[in-house]
Specification:
Blueprint lengths: L8 H8 L13 H16 L8 E5 L10 H9 L5 E5 L5 H14 L5 E9 L9 H4 L4 E9 L7 E9 L7 E2 L11 H5 L6 E2 L1 H22 L9 E4 L4 H11 L10 H4 L6 H11 L8 E8 L3 E8 L3
Parallel strand pairs: 1-2, 1-3, 8-9
Antiparallel strand pairs: 3-4, 5-10, 6-7, 9-10
Helix pairs in contact: 2-3, 7-8
């Protein structure tokens, strides 16, 4: 990074908490990472892809505008009985996807829904822009949502919001119908992430804490009941500030931004995977998921861990 822009390791770590990141090989697209994560999830559960009823891919970096990445993933997995779609909510994407999947399953129309968060952010980052290029990495994670015989386990509730007034503060200006790709938009570097960091920082801290408090109160819980907060990994300072507002000690907050940077829709499933493999989440634990993303989008989920 220091060879690309005016920065250094100390500055990056102190400002963001990021120590390393993963960048996909040039021949690897979002669907490839999504399929790899999906196969790992299905393997751990011990079921074939043909058991899936739906596949939801949460991403802002699809392989192409259409067909949806979900179509590509469904085909590569061989999930012949599943339908699916892409869900675009930026960094809140995985939380939104879990909300949708939980309601599909709770309705009784679906038994097994796969939610994948996957983003190849390195393809839409301007590596001459110090303000954004140090923040992002590539990755994918997946979770299987399915019916349970125990009514005390699984999905408890959600609070999701959008605030479109925040759109100008974090976006990719060109590539859609308003500013289609052209020689001018490429020359003006309009196909990269643009961000006003201070605006995003303040909103993220406030909104993650507010929604978390409101959701817990709605369901009769206090922050002290939460075994683990798994937040979107955008910036270590955002995470710690939001946790402090909730009164949560750091040992009850999953932070792994140091290993992966901001992988957008993939941060929470990557963090959940780490929580499970490290033994920080066990059956019956109350887990709170929280995210804020471009849009603005914001969302929190509350689950009784059933894995």
């Amino acid at each position: 990074m220091s060879r690309m822009v005016e920065t250094n390791d100390t500055w990056i770590v102190e400002r963001t908490g990021i120590r390393e990141r993963h960048i996909a090989d040039e021949n690897v697209a979002t669907s490839d990472m999504a399929v790899a994560a999906a196969r790992e999830a299905l393997s751990r559960r011990g079921i074939p892809a043909t058991d899936l009823d739906a596949v939801i891919v949460c991403t802002v970096t699809p392989d192409m505008m259409f067909p949806s990445t979900a179509c590509l993933v469904q085909n590569q997995l061989g999930a012949t009985g599943a339908w699916g779609f892409d869900l675009v909510a930026a960094c809140s994407g995985f939380v939104y996807g879990l909300t949708v999947a939980a309601h599909l399953v709770a309705s009784g129309t679906h038994r097994k829904t796969l939610v994948i968060g996957a983003d190849t952010m390195s393809r839409i980052i301007d590596f001459t822009d110090r303000a954004t290029c140090i923040l992002f990495g590539d990755g994918a994670g997946a979770a299987l949502i399915e019916t349970s015989d125990n009514p005390d386990e699984g999905f408890i509730g959600h609070l999701n919001e959008v605030d479109g007034s925040g759109g100008p503060f974090l976006n990719m200006p060109a590539g859609g119908s308003r500013r289609p790709a052209s020689a001018d938009t490429v020359a003006e570097r309009m196909h990269y992430v643009k961000q006003e960091g201070q605006q995003v920082f303040k909103y993220a801290v406030r909104k993650m804490a507010e929604l978390s408090e409101d959701l817990l109160k709605k369901h009769g819980f206090a922050p002290s009941d939460v075994k683990l907060l798994v937040p979107h990994q955008a910036n270590r300072r955002i995470i710690t500030a939001a946790a402090e507002r909730l009164g949560l000690a750091e040992d009850r907050v999953l932070i792994n931004i140091d290993k992966f940077a901001n992988t957008t829709a993939a941060t929470i499933p990557l963090a959940l995977n780490e929580a499970v493999t490290q033994g920080r989440l066990k059956k019956g634990d109350l887990v709170l998921l929280a995210a804020v993303g471009a849009g603005y989008t914001a969302g929190v989920n509350l689950w009784r861990w059933a894995y």
